[in-house]
Structures are given as structure tokens and as C-alpha cells.
């Protein structure tokens, strides 16, 4: 909270103002919520909070000390580690592309962090290690488990999403922690980064008891340099905090196809964030009026082309007082029409996602196995290339000579392969391939592996749970049915301006597969104790008996005499006479 | 009569003189109290050492102490909370993002504002001892450090499964009472605490404080050596036991405490007698220098700030608006910046391969060995071959 108060300038006014920068009027904040009902009856809500700041951290002359809307903790991290772009996401659950379509911001299960450093950095690995530690303190997550054994340096994937021209992949680092748990302790510091905290605006809806009782929950922070205006002559820093959540029909709504803000978030809206220049709610009504009805109806409509499809949205502008109506509170209500029983929707009603990927482990036993990655191209007549990136930990030793890529049961040779083998306990495997997917086909990538035996101190406290392998990443430029918008305007809705669009005929999409859970051969950790007990017993019994056999002698033991005979013996001894028996 | 009047006047004058004297005494005693408690800041280290869903009660124990400590004033920056497993967002939890302490889901001790510093696999004996002694790697963030000084009162709370002389961490390692005593001695020698209150809720908990030998330590345990600490009540909807008996009654006691309360340690020793707890709670005060009756509960559980009231007004100057600086200098050529192409297929296919390790050119080694053999045979001649073979 201190960072929001203006600091008193101490330097005298005559010197030119190179030692501090004015930030009072140069950052702006926008917030937005998109509600998209899904065909299965679930509902998808996507929050985006964007802070735009016209400053350049990396310019040597300017020392930034005046933070207003941009959080100070992140600003200091960016300048200390010379970060050009930072993307971190925490996800609970898996995004089901075939049932829910494409998300606005994709993310893999667990935690994912990828960072582009600036070219002036000399020791990228050192900066990466310190950055993960600092972020683990900011977000209350175990990001300090990211080290060289699970960090990779992709050579073609994860190009920067912000401004820039030179892309030397030596400055990129990518790591994922599939086991990372997301709970309220990650949401609390994430909410504290917002300018209005959790007190006003759309962030009052972020109640953890409802958000975590869902099929999918993902919160992310994306920082990158963007164009300040349409001419794009100067850079501005953009911080986007996104939260995607999919509420399940049966757990959150008890099977009734009726959704409202109160039911989803246990809260209604009363005001917009006073620090926001724009605060809007978009409800996807492209399938209205056949599917559902929306209350309260608003005259504001907007059309946007997003993810290759033209969708119509009802817009609720929270900065206008009349949105809240008589009761000073806004509660949107979506009620499904028609029968509330089982719905039967075939693929024609929903735009079938053009790109979809799956991954699983085949084989049996605890020695070998096979990883299968299956990529589906559902476009009826267009082929397009995809970039598949696989990062496999070192304890699954891949046999790359068994790598096969087949499409439509024919061999499909990738046009680019980059493979970096693993080094035990130092580096994971990295496999990147550019594969051309034929239209309306299924491509399968298989590779065999062998499981390694870890040292007994390297096992986790619950090794029988298994070990996780991070998701594969499939990046592609998918041909679009509708012309995409390549102009960059300030009043574009946030959900359509996340990924920069370079050409009209295709849009960029990233699909994550499931993470894998493999069992490694696990020793029985109680065995050292059992072995010691058993060995000591055997040695004691065996050696003891042997020793007795060798050294035991038998002696005749005289029975003890009664008292009078002992006295008589004593007297006889004095007399020197032979003793009694 | 005169004498009587004289005496009255004399007594009256004496009274008048002694009032300011008494008043200054009163001020002095109050000032003395102001500086007597000895500590200027409060820290808390709360550790739950058990993993797996059926140890839900240990996480609930730790979170209820966390809740009380936060309520009584210690901020998150001064609390190091270590939870070995996640119960709130565990897939077995029928109400996600909640941890309950009372059955019928009456009290959610997890809440909406919780910051866990060490979680999951990070809760190890090594990390716990490093936090206590302050010997952490340099890149550890501040929220994971115990930055106490010699005027800090620290509360340490441990819960989990234990035995005679040890406490089990995550079902895979143990900390012994000697290690703990040595850690406290290291803290004392480095002046990392002013006074320390140690509470442990495990089976045979009293064995953990038997070996302490550093000054200014007070310890409480939920059971004596040879006794088991028992859990309190199960919740049929969640399916596990929610709290341990000792911490349950400790929580009930602490709910009555507010930041200005004058409850002292003797009341804390009476929490959960054998009739309620079945085990006999124990305590140890021989290493503590003050009398436990004069030690307030809020000395350890709360962060009572001393407030100084002043009646003078302070003028705040209005903030100076710095002049808005134009970005960049004028002589840099302004050119349009562009976004990077996300999937430049042509560029990727023709990408130069990364620098590999240097190998000598092909055939070099073969040629080198041929040269050596040729020189050898030329020097020594073929007639010497029979000496070799």
C-alpha cells in the first residue's frame, strides 16, 4: 500500500529531472470479465486486469522509484534481473479442448514459468536461479524447486509475445512444475498485486471458496513490453493478470442450467474500480436466443474476432452508473431455454477446435515404456505446420532412435528437429520438431524410454504417488475461418489483444497436453531397518552358537552342603584332617 | 484548639506537597512498565510436519494457531508458516479452499487471506533448522526468513507425529530433541531471540523440551513421556478427525484473548487439564527468567505495539508534482517497433545449428597415426621389425 503514495522529491528543481521519472499520469489500468457459456452446460469466466505503464526499466539513466498502479515488488524484480518478458501461470485442473473449445490464455497444469532476459545479461543461469527464488517468495509457491534439472532453453518455441526484433534463444528459459498445487495462498498475493486489491471492481468476485470448487482454475501474470500507441514509436510495460475459471454444471449449479454472478462467485458487483479507466463485462451471446436468455438486457453490443471466430458480445460498462440499476448492484443471469435434461449437441453446433493434442504413456512394467503424443488437425482441407516441444526429465531415458512420426499411417518427416539429450542429474531432454500436419488427420509421435533407478535420497517423501512429466507444448498458426484484425487499437477488448496478430488469415494458438504420471522403480524404504535387525539376529544366533560350541567346557558342580556339615568341614580344616563329601 | 488547627494546616500542606510527588512516582512507574517487557517485535514459526489426507488435523492445528496469532496482531511478514501438505485444495476435500476446526463446518481456519511460506516438500528438518538459525542461501526471499533480533519474542509451534525424543517430518525423516536444543542454543549465542515460547502438540511431546539448556525458554507440551496425544472429533462429511484435543482447547482459550487482555501464562498452563485432554499437558519454566504469572499471553501470541500519544499537530506538506519528462532524447531516430513473429516457419527451418563442441576435422586422427607409423618405419627400417614382433 505504501507504494501508491507519491514520494516527496528531494532533489532541487533546478537540476534536470534525470534522477527520477514522473509516473503520476503515465499508467492506466483496465479490467475486464468475459463470460462464455459452454455447450456442455458449464460456464467459462475469464478475468483480465491490465496495467499499462509508459516507462522503460532498462534505460540506464532513469531510476524508477515512483510506483503508482504498477506493483513495486514486480517492478523491482524486472529491473534487478533485466527481464524483458515474464510469464508465470498457476493452474489447477486440465483444459478440455474438445469439450470447451480454446481458452483465451492457455496454460498447463501446475506451475509454468518462462522468461526472456535482456541481451545485456551475462549470466543468464544465475539470474534465472535468483529470479525463481524471488518469485517463490512473492507468490507463496515452491518455485525454488526450479533448477537446472527441469529448466530448458527452447530453440524455436516461446518466441517473445512483446515488442522486439532480435530473438537470441540463449536468453530464454522455460520451466514447468506439474506437481505444484494452487490454493488460496497463491491467490492472496496475486490479488494484492491488483491496484484495487480485492476491495473494489471486478476483483471483489474473486472468492477462493468458489473459485477452487471448479473444474479448471488458472491464474497468471504476464509482463511484456508493448506499443504505447498506434504509431508504435515507443514502448510501454504491460502487466496482465489473468484468471480463467470453468465452473462445472453439477458441482456448482446442482445440475440446473442457470448461471448468475451470485451463483458463480457468491457476490454481486456494486461498483467499478475507481482507479480503472475501463471496467467492462462481456457476455458471449453468439448462441443467443436459441440457447439461453440474458438478464438484464443491455443495448451495448460488440463484435470481436477472437480465436478465428467472429463472436458477438453483450457489453456491461461498469463505469456508468446506470448499469447497476435501481438496487445499485449488478447480477447477471443466464437461463437456458428448452429442456433441462441431458443435452445432445453434435459437433456442428460448436465450432470444433481445429487443433487438439493428447499424450499418454504406453507399455507395462517398471522398466520400459513408450510416450505417445497424438496431434489432431480437424481442418477439412488445409494443412499447417505445428511446433511440438517436449521436455522430459532425465530419469526417463529416451531412446531417440525409436522416435517415429506418423500421419495417416505413413511416415511424416519433420522439417526441423532440435534434440538436446539429457545429462543425468543435470539437464532434462528437450525435443522440438516442426511437423506439417495433413488436413483432417491424426499425427502420432512415439518414443520409447527406460526408467532410471534414483539414489535413495532423491526420492520424494511419497514416491509411490509417481513422478510427473511436464506437458508437451504444441504451437501453431491455425488457419482462420474469419479474417483476423491486425490493427492495434487502444480500445480493443483485452481478450482479443493478448497475442499479436501479424496476418489476417491465421491466428496463433498454443495447446498443452496432459502431464504424465509415471512410476519409477521404488525401493522399500523400511528395508535398511529390517535388514539390520535380521542380520544382527542371524549373526547373534549363528556366531553365538558357534562360539559356545568351541569354547564351552563342562565342570562338575558340587551340591552345597547343609549347615552342620559345613561347620564340621571348617573344624576339620583347622585340624588338618580330610574333609567330608 | 490552636494546636489542633495547626496540625490540620500542617497535614493539609503536607498533602499538597505529596500529591505532585506521588504523581511523579506514578509517572515513573508507568514509564518503568513501558520499558520493562524487553521485547520490541514478535515473530512466530508455525510448523505442521505431517503429510497425507488422514493427517488433516495437524494442518488444522497449525492453521488455528496461525489464525489466532494473526488476529492478535502479528503480521504475515513476521510469521513463517510451514505446511507439509495441502489439505484445502486436496482433491479429497469435499469443500475446497477450506480447513475446518469444528465439526459441522463451523469455523474455517484457512480463510481468505493466508500466506504459506514453506509448503509441500520444502518442509524438511534442514529447512526448519536453517530458518531457526538464519543460515539460509542468499537468494532466499524475505518472507521465508526469520529475521529476528535480540529484542524479539518468538513463538514456535510444532505439531505432527512424534515419539520419545523425536518428531517425524513428512514420514521420511526425524528431528531429535537434542538437535532442537542445539538449534535454540545457536539462536541464543547469535542473539536471535529475547524470549522464546515453544509449544508442541504430538504424542510424548514433553520429551522434546527435556534437553533445552539455553536461557529464556518456556515450553509447553500436550502430553508427557509415555502418553499419547489424542485427536478431538471427526467430521462425518469430511471423513477425518479435524483437530487434536490440546490445540482445540488452546484455540478456544485464545479466542477469548484480545489484544489488550491481561491473561498470563499461568492461565495458559491450565488449558486442557487431564479431564478434557486425557493426556497430561506439561510445561517447563525453569529456564525462563521472569515469573510466568507476570508474562502476558500477548507477549508471545500478539504483537502489541506501544503507542505514544502526542497532542501536537504536524503539518504535512502537499506532495510536489514532478515535471512530466518526455521519454527518450530527441536525437534518437524514432522508428516503428514491431512484434515478433510467433511461428516463423522459414526462419526455423533454416536456423543455424547451435555451436557444438569442437572436434578435429574428419580423417585427421587417421592421417596423424598413418604419419606416425610411416616415420617410425622409415627411421628404424624394416629389418628391425623382427625385434618388435
UniProtKB/TrEMBL annotation, chain A:
Coiled coil: none annotated. GO terms for cellular component: GPI-anchor transamidase complex. It holds the Pfam family Gpi16. InterPro entries: PIG-T. GO terms for biological process: attachment of GPI anchor to protein. This is GPI transamidase component PIG-T-like. It comes from Sinocyclocheilus anshuiensis.
From TrEMBL, chain B:
The keyword Signal applies. Pathway: Glycolipid biosynthesis; glycosylphosphatidylinositol-anchor biosynthesis. One of its GO terms (molecular function) is GPI-anchor transamidase activity. GO terms for biological process: attachment of GPI anchor to protein; GPI anchor biosynthetic process; proteolysis. The chain crosses the membrane at residues 363-382. Keywords: GPI-anchor biosynthesis, Membrane, Signal, Transmembrane, Transmembrane helix. Residues 1-24 form the signal peptide. GO terms for cellular component: GPI-anchor transamidase complex. InterPro entries: GPI_transamidase, Peptidase_C13. The active site is at 161, 203 (nucleophile). PANTHER family: GPI-ANCHOR TRANSAMIDASE. Belongs to the peptidase C13 family. Heteropentamer. Part of the GPI-anchor transamidase complex, consisting of PIGK, PIGT, PIGS, PIGU and GAA1. Interacts with GPAA1. Interacts with PIGT; this interaction, via a disulfide link, stabilizes the expression of GAA1 and PIGK and links them to PIGS. This is GPI-anchor transamidase. The lineage of its organism: Eukaryota, Metazoa, Chordata, Craniata, Vertebrata.
